[in-house]
Amino acid sequence: MELWSRADPQLREVVWFSLRCRALALLLQAVFNLLIPDHAADAFSPPRSGPWGLWDALLERLLGGLGRWDAEHFLFIAERGYLLEHNCAFLPLFPLGLRLLAALLPCPVPLQPRSRLLLAAALLNALLATLAAAALLALGRAVLRRPGQAFLAALLFSLSPAGVFMAAAYSESAFAALAFGAMWQLEKGRGWLGGLLFALAAGARANGLVNAGFVLYSRVKRFVLRLQGAAASPRELPVLWKQALGLVASAALACAGISLPFALFQYYAYVRFCEPGTGLAQSVPEALLQLARDKGYRVAGVGVDKPPWCSQRFPLVYSYIQDAYWNVGFLRYFELRQIPNFLLALPVTLLCSWAAWTYVSANPRHCLTLGLVKSKGEKSGKARDGFCGPAAFVYVVHSTALLAFGFFCMHVQVLTRFLGSSSPILYWFSAHLLLEHEPLLWSTGTDNPASGKPPLGKSHSSCGKGTSDNPVVRLLLNWRSITPLSKSILGFFLGYWLLGLVLHCNFLPWT
User: Fold this and answer.
1) Of 185, 125, 200, 119, whose CA–CA distance to 158 is shortest?
2) What is the pLDDT of residues 316-328, one digit of tens each?
3) Which end of the chain, C or N, has fewer beta carbons within 10 A?
4) Which has the minimum average pLDDT: 187-191, 226-230, 317-321?
């Protein structure tokens, strides 16, 4: 495939920049974890299994920052499975990957399971984050049709404001790699491969179910454009009806396939916690049972009372956990004491809202027709490219829908990682603004700004041969001379990237 061409200097730079950022993140989290004492957070902290040796203590010192907050759930699931009910809020694909890699890793020294899993998480997420950056580069080239803009967006992904979650034992890197890869395959016309990747993404995070909309929109748009290009006649009505029924059937099949991993896991949880006679009580350590009694956790196979969600018409453990354990729901987070969390989510909220407004303002007719009617430019083969091009419409809708849902129905502070791992818009729009308003980039061989301002000079593109050809590095090295807008965007990305490592790795509140 063209994405993996070794002769592609932009891809080579994206890969190496991503790996360097991953290595720096691992180094910094270890330093911060050593220098800053852990906060005594009221978070899930299961008892450790087995006696710890010298190598376990060393690995905990070096990589322990990757196992904070929700990472405790993923590591616990990978080690012991779904013993506790509220673990079922975390879907199984990433823990399965951790468990497999931990079992395959050659280990010359004795390590406890948690230590092996921490090491596996560091390696796996470094690989997955790099694959996600490469997939974002390919997706940007296909949608934006501006290689420079796609290149800059992929580089920004490596410094994502959600960067700590791409490094820690979270499923964000896996989800981003699968989702961006699926979107790219769909843009290339490989619908079944894209659907398969979307299905795997839905096995990593529940919001992967929303990605079925990309498949639906792609098929509907193809059908509608075919209708517009064909002359209507009564004789063709049976053929059109047949095509419409085929569209409905294939769309339903695609949605069912994408939803299948999530549905299978809900069934697994039902059997695990709702069916009597699982007989797991004897395999649960006493320390863990005591923790469950102290915290009110429900343990699989322990107790005679069924959980309330088992008797619901649609017994979805995921929805129940979000409601009962974390009070997730419409406007439930709108409280005065949550103002700091709303402020934490403000930058990504403003940036994605600005992106939606910019796109709608530039393409009002295209948005009103849902992108299903070709413009004159598209008909003549001269459609606008870049962020405001017609191909970006469905991605803007997807990002805006996630933003609205997250803002009104979720713990709002997770918006940064929610959008940063799910949508390319955060990176595309940031790259669009930088290329549009930063004169330093007009002479780097990147795409001409959409405003029509000419480049300041010619440049033969040689991205990847040195740090000067990396536009992000160039901006950072010339920090004093770049525009306030560029400083704001890069300050947001770098500030959240660094603060996340400082706070999250020491059990301090973060996004």
Assistant:
1) 125
2) 999 999 999 999 9
3) N
4) 226-230
